[in-house]
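Case 294 in the screening queue. Each case pairs one protein sequence with one candidate compound; here the compound is iron/sulfur cluster. For every case the pipeline is the same: read the inputs, emit a complex structure as tokens, and attach any notable structural observations.

Predict complex for case 294.
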Amino acid sequence: MSGPQHISAANLVGWFERTSRDLPWRHPGVSAWQILVSEFMLQQTPVSRVLSIWPDWVRRWPTPSATAAATAADVLRAWGKLGYPRRAKRLHECATVIARDHDDVVPDDVEVLLTLPGVGSYTARAVACFAYQQRVPVVDTNVRRVVARAIHGRSDAGAPSARRDHADVSALLPNDATAPQFSVALMELGATVCTARTPRCGLCPLDACAWRQAGFPASAGLPRPVQRYAGTDRQVRGCLLDVLRANNAPVTKSQLDVAWRTDTQQRDRALDSLLADGLITKTVDGRFALAGEQ
Ligand code: SF4
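Case 294 output:
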């Protein structure tokens, strides 16, 4: 490829090697399981918060079988404040399946990875690429934004389409052993330089960018609403889980009630949803505990 439809692998990989963040799950010797754990944690959670949990987590539970041997409550408690705690439950289930059905080894095939609990299209390809050095397209929000700008001349990527997004990134991957480095570098560029609100084009290693060359035209779409957290059911669920995490024994309903006083209907709805998700259980005497803890 040539012209603006091309991203120079040498430029991008060279930039990555000079400037990338020193993230522990990228270090040599980190196992496929530990990389998979980092990918579960990084879904919807900023790197800085994952950094505060991942090292202790993989020391405590370095393998799928070690994780499977823990109780679901232990895993939920260690997940702490990462948010979206269903991920912790799915990670525990994923560990159980790998330990039981795959000899405690994370599969290296994307199609097999996709059969594991909690592993979706992005995570399967991220593990195949980062843990097993395969040439597969790894497409997250950051990658989609860089491709939209550099290749298509648009300020943002619009609605995701797995087939189109994978085809776009596959066409950019170099046909040699640098493909995995290229993938991680593309993600890093979107995360640190070509950011959603304030791209720092002066630091960009790309020699051509269609959006920059077109004079940064504004997006035709409506601006995305900013996600809020305060006052949402998600926040209430977090407050209820905090109470359970802080207690090693089941708690009463009134102990939970003090965690959220502003809207009792919302509190009860959040409690019901935690029960429905299997993150907490109700004891025979009507108290509440983290899943698997009673
Ligand atoms: S030149 Fe600017 S907009 Fe284009 S890819 Fe680089 S950082 Fe993003």
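Case 294 observations:
- The radius of gyration is 21 Å.
- The chain has a mean pLDDT of 92.
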